[in-house]
Amino acid sequence: MSNKSYMAKVELVYKYINDIQKIIKRHKGIEAALADYEGEYAIKKCITQIGEAIKNIKDTEILS
Questions:
Q1: 21, 29, 57, 59: most buried by Cβ count inside 10 Å?
Q2: Which positions ≥6 away from 38 have C-beta within 8 Å?
Q3: pLDDT digits (tens, 9 = 90+) for 18-58
Q4: Confidence (pLDDT) at 6
Q5: Measured between alpha carbons, how far is 51 from 59 in angstroms, rounded to an integer?
Q6: Are 30 and 39 in contact, with CB atoms under 8 Å apart?
Q7: pLDDT of residue 13
Q8: What's 55's DSSP letter?
């Protein structure tokens, strides 16, 4: 996999982390976000997408 491909995956992970932060902020806290069905679903979806993006990154330079 090329460095461009790795960087695209890292950027995608960054986007999903930002999305989680926005969801938490919109609900005024993690507990409220997880107590809301849509908030919980959105956070879980972001976490799943993060896992999918990083599972194929094997370059230790990118991860360190």
A1: 57
A2: none
A3: 999 999 999 999 999 999 999 999 999 999 999 999 887 77
A4: 80
A5: 16
A6: no
A7: 95
A8: T
Distance CA 35, CA 8 (A): 32
Q: How far, in Å, CA of 29 to CA of 13, rounded?
A: 21
Q: Give the whole-angstrom CA distance, residue 16 versus residue 14.
A: 6
Element (H, E) at 63: helix 60-63
**Encoded amino acid at 29, one letter:** G
CA-based nearest residue to 46, from 60, 30, 57, 63: 30
Residue 2: its pLDDT value, please? 64
The two structure tokens encoding residue 27: 């609900």
CB 11 within 8 A of CB 50: no
Buried b (16+ CB within 10 A) or exposed e, 28-62: eeeeebeeeeebeebbeebeeebeebeeeeeeeee
